[in-house]
Design brief:
Layout: H1 5-33, H2 35-57, H3 70-75, H4 80-104, H5 112-127, H6 130-142, H7 151-156, H8 161-189
Helix pairs in contact: 2-4, 4-8, 6-8
């Protein structure tokens, strides 16, 4: 089997994703055991979780999912469900800012790769207005990839900011709950 450019990109993407999860687990362990971090979490509690959600929501600044920090907050005996919701709210605030930036400058998305996806979404939007929003919900809730990859496309389709926010908030919450349960289980096994 010949290693083509597309296969190499796929392989490198897989390696990057595995490395990202490895760094997430290592960072969670490191931060949970760090006395300074423990003091900050104990001092600021749920507000710190909200702030982490906003900062981690900008995946281009911190390329780690916000839920990776869940063990740090759990070590401070904070409620997991409340944490998942606060992280989701923080992530959604970041999504809103990213969406607004994307909406103001979507003309830069004229490459052939994004235009074919955009054209497909535009056809879906005309025929079934809910279908692209459903796709955004499932992408946000289950894809272990930054929302920055999908938000510019939805901005170019002209969706209202509140529609996007109302879609990404429950999707971010579901993402945090599902991945938080899995991350917590793996964290306790280690």
């Amino acid at each position: 089997m010949e290693l083509t450019t597309s296969r190499l990109k796929f392989l490198l993407s897989g390696i990057f994703l595995i490395a990202l999860f490895g760094v997430s687990f290592w960072l969670s362990r490191f931060l949970t055991d760090n006395e300074t971090v423990q003091n900050l979490v104990n001092s600021y509690g749920y507000f710190a979780a909200l702030l982490v959600g906003v900062i981690a929501g900008f995946n281009f600044i911190v390329p780690l999912p916000a839920i990776a920090f869940m063990p740090v907050f759990l070590a401070a005996h904070l409620n997991a469900f409340v944490l998942a919701i606060l992280l989701a709210i923080g992530m959604t605030v970041a999504d809103g800012v990213e969406y607004a930036v994307s909406k103001s400058g979507w003309e830069t998305l004229k490459s052939s790769r994004t235009s074919s996806i955009r054209n497909r979404l535009d056809r879906w939007k005309r025929k079934h207005p809910v279908l692209p929003i459903a796709a955004l919900f499932f992408y946000t809730a289950f894809a272990p990839a930054p929302n920055e990859l999908s938000l510019p496309l939805f901005a170019s389709l002209g969706y209202k900011t509140m529609t996007i926010m109302a879609t990404t908030l429950p999707a971010n919450a579901l993402f945090n709950i599902v991945y938080g349960i899995g991350l917590t289980a793996v964290f306790h096994m280690l």
